[in-house]
Amino acid sequence: MRSTRPPVLDQTPAALDALWHALDPDPSSPAPRIRAVMISTIDGTATVDGRSGGLGTPADELVFQAMRARADVILVGSRTALTEGYGAAAISPVWGDRREGSPPTVLLLTRSLSDEVIDHCAAVGPGMGVVAAHGVDADRVRAARDRGVAVHVLDPGPPGAAVRTLMRSLGAGEVDLEGGPEVLGGLLATGGVDELILTLSPTVALGGDATRLVSSGVAGTERVRVRVADAFTAPDGGLYTRWVVREEAQ
Q1: What is the CA angle 122-53-207, rounded to 5?
Q2: Beta bridge partners of residue 73, listed in sequence order
Q3: pLDDT tens digits for 11-45?
Q4: What does pTM read for this prediction?
Q5: Residue 204 in contact with residue 55, Cβ under 8 Å?
Q6: Strand partners, 245
Q7: 105-110 and 239-245 as β-strands: parallel, antiparallel, unpaired?
Q8: 226-233 and 239-245: which strand pairing?
Q9: Start-to-end C-alpha separation, the chain
């Protein structure tokens, strides 16, 4: 394991450069690289009061914004996007000098294309679109497109392969997957995730909701092997890790 310990995770050039390179993707992963960005307490709880935002730390925000600055597309489950109040992506000024071009498009993963999802995307505008499951009702697709929402429908087959095919067709080299737990579980189980960028918040959740970091939605236990590629701490007390999904798990 290679350990990277920036002296202070603040906005000094040396610290930002160390963090940026700690987040470099594994060179063995071919494009599109799909990299999940998640946070949990040390006991594995992924939300507090229904939202992940309450778990964040200053260093976690730097990691989150760095991953967005690197990405060509941001993928997020529609439930997470609605709960967290997602809008169009913007590049943090901290990372602005490391990115060329416009911010990445935010694409919401949805099974049903509900009115709530369509209304939300239409209100945000062209910076946000939809990735709908294969077999979604054609009337729902038309309803979204009539509101000016870009809709991409996945091919049949395992979700991981279908998402990879779509991202490749969109020309995405790096994809930032921002949850939630069911989306992460479904894509991990079907070879649709290459890396996990995981912040362990310096918190133990006592009571409250029981949302875990990953939810597979299937009975029984399924294991996906990963290896740690980078880990570092910061003065705010969090642990910041980058895990590569092992090739045999794809």
Answers
A1: 125
A2: 105, 175
A3: 778 888 888 998 999 988 888 999 999 988 887 78
A4: 0.89
A5: no
A6: 226
A7: unpaired
A8: antiparallel
A9: 22
The token duo for 74 is 């941001």
Whole-number Å distance between alpha carbons of 52 and 46: 6
Main-chain dihedrals φ then ψ at residue 69, nearest 5 degrees: -65, -25
CB 230 within 8 A of CB 220: no
Give the whole-angstrom CA distance, residue 190 versus residue 155.
14
Point out which residues pair with 201 in neighbouring strands.
Answer: 41
Reported as a single tens digit per residue, the pLDDT across 69-102 is 999 999 999 999 999 899 999 999 999 999 989 9
Residues 6+ apart with CB under 8 A from 102: none
Cα separation, 187 vs 190, whole angstroms: 5
pLDDT in tens, 148-185: 999 999 999 999 999 999 999 999 999 999 988 889 99
DSSP state of 101: S
Helix H, strand E, coil C: the string for 67-96 is: HHHHCCEEEEEHHHHHHHCCCCCCCCHHHH
Q: What are phi and psi of 30, to 5 degrees?
A: -75, 160
Query: The sheet that has 239-245: what strands, in order across it?
Result: 151-153, 128-132, 105-110, 73-77, 174-177, 33-41, 195-201, 239-245, 226-233
SS3 48: strand
Single-letter code of the amino acid located at 172: A
